[in-house]
Protein 1
Amino acid sequence: MTMTLPTPTGSSSTAIGQVRLAVRGLRKVFADDPRPALEMLHRGATKAEVLHRLNVNVGVAEASFDIRAGEIFVIMGLSGSGKSTIVRLLNRLIEPSEGQIRLDGRDLTALPYGDLVEVLRRDMSMVFQSFALLPNRTALENAAFGLEVAGVKRGERRKAALAALERVGLADYADRYPDELSGGMQQRVGLARALAKNPTIMLMDEAFSALDPLIRCDMQDELLRLQREDARTIVFISHDAEEAMRIADRIAVMEDGRIAQIGTPAEILRAPADGYVRAFFRGVDASRVLRARDLARPPDDGTAGEPARFRYRTDPEGRFRGVLAGDGASVLFGLEPVAAETPIQALLGRVAAAACPLPVVEADGRFLGVISCSALLAALDRGEDAGRGARHG
Ligand SMILES: Nc1ncnc2c1ncn2[C@@H]1O[C@H](COP(=O)(O)OP(=O)(O)O)[C@@H](O)[C@H]1O
Ligand SMILES: [Mg+2]
C-alpha cells in the first residue's frame, strides 16, 4: 500500500503525522458585541447560561485541538453542539470571536483577507451535506466549478475535473446532469469537485448524512480508499457514532460548544470521558472497532510466592518465540501469535478456545502482550444498556 501526501503547491511540505491545523482557545459567540458573552465563558459559564443571561447564542464555547497531516479527524456531537461552526471557522466562512487557528504554523486569524483567500483556495476544499450541485451543469462542469471560481483555465480545469470524476468512478457520467444521477452519484460529484482542486485539506460537513445507509457505507469505503492513495488531511463532521468509528483516525466529541473528549476510536470506546460520550457510543459494536493491539496487556508474571501459569518467551530483539508452562517445565505450546491489527471480532473464538492468553505481535514479530478471556469480556461489556441503541448492524 503506497501512501503519498498531495504536495501543497508553493507551501511548506508536511510529513504524515505532523500538525497541520493547530486550534487554540477558539470561541465563537453570535453577538454584535461579543465581550460580555466571552467574559462569561472565561469564567466557565455554559452555553445555556450565556443564552439565559445575555440571550446570546454560543457556537463554540472553547475548543483547542491539533489536526495532523494525513489523518481523518472526525468531529462529532449532537445537533447544535457546534460542529458546523468549527468547520466554518477553520476555513473562515465566519470570523472567530477569539482564539487562534494555525495552518502549517501560520496564524490564519492574523492573515490579511487577500492572503487568506489565497491560502485557503490552495489548501482547503469543502464538501457539504446538501450536494450543492448546479442543476443546469453537467457532472463534469460541476466537478470543475471550484477550479473555475479559482480562475483556472478551461482546458486545465476540465482535465482536472475529469481525472477527479474518474477517481470517484464517474468518468462515464461526465456529461450527465445532476437530476440524471442518483443521490450517491451526486455526492460523488460533490466529492470530485473537492478533489479536483487537489486540496491538502478537505472539510466535510455531514457530507454523507443525507445518503441511504448502504450508499453511505459505499461512500465511506470510497473515502477510505481515496485516503489510502493520497493521505489528505480530512476534517469530517458527523453526528453518527458508527460512521465516526468506521472512518476516523481520531475523534473529537463536542458537547454544548466544548470538546468533551479527543481520542482514537479505541481510546474513546475503552475510556469514555463522561456519561455523554459513553451514551453517544453505546450502540457501537466494540468488537468491530477494537483491534488486538488495543487489548494486549503484559502477561501476568505471577504474584508473590505463586509463579505465573504461563511464560511468554521473546528473543533479544523482543520478538515472540513461544509460551512455556509457568512451572518452568519445557512444555511449549505450538501457539500462533495474533497480528496486532486483527479486529477483535475475528478473535472471539480463538481467545475463548486457547489454553492460555493469546500472544499479540507487531508486523515485525515484536511481542506486544497478551489477550486474556477476561480482558476480552471486560472490553466488550459496555454496561447494561449496551447494544440497545444499535443502528444497522
Ligand atoms: N449564524 C448564527 N447565528 C446565531 N446562532 C448560530 C448561528 N450559527 C449557529 N448558531 C448556533 O450555534 C450553535 C452551534 O450550531 P452548529 O455549529 O450549527 O451546530 P451543529 O453543526 O453541531 O449542529 C447552535 O446553538 C446554533 O443555534
Ligand atoms: Mg451542522
Protein 2
Amino acid sequence: MRNTKHCPKCGSPEIGIVEPGRYNSFPVGFGGARLERYVCLSCGFTEEWVERGALEKVRKYYGSSSGHE
Ligand SMILES: [Zn+2]
C-alpha cells in the first residue's frame, strides 16, 4: 500500500496517509516507535509501518537475539 499506492483489498487508488504522531505508536519497552498509517478511503482497510529510523529500536527489543523473553 505504501509502495503500490493502491489498496491491496479493493484496488482503490484513494489512500489517506496518517503521519507518525503521538497517538500513533507501537510499544517498544518504556517508549514507543511511531507509526505511519495508510488508510484506504474506499473500503477502510488500514496498513501501518514503523517510522523510518525507529526500526532499529524495534529490532533490538523484539529481535530473536535481543535476550528478551
Ligand atoms: Zn480498499
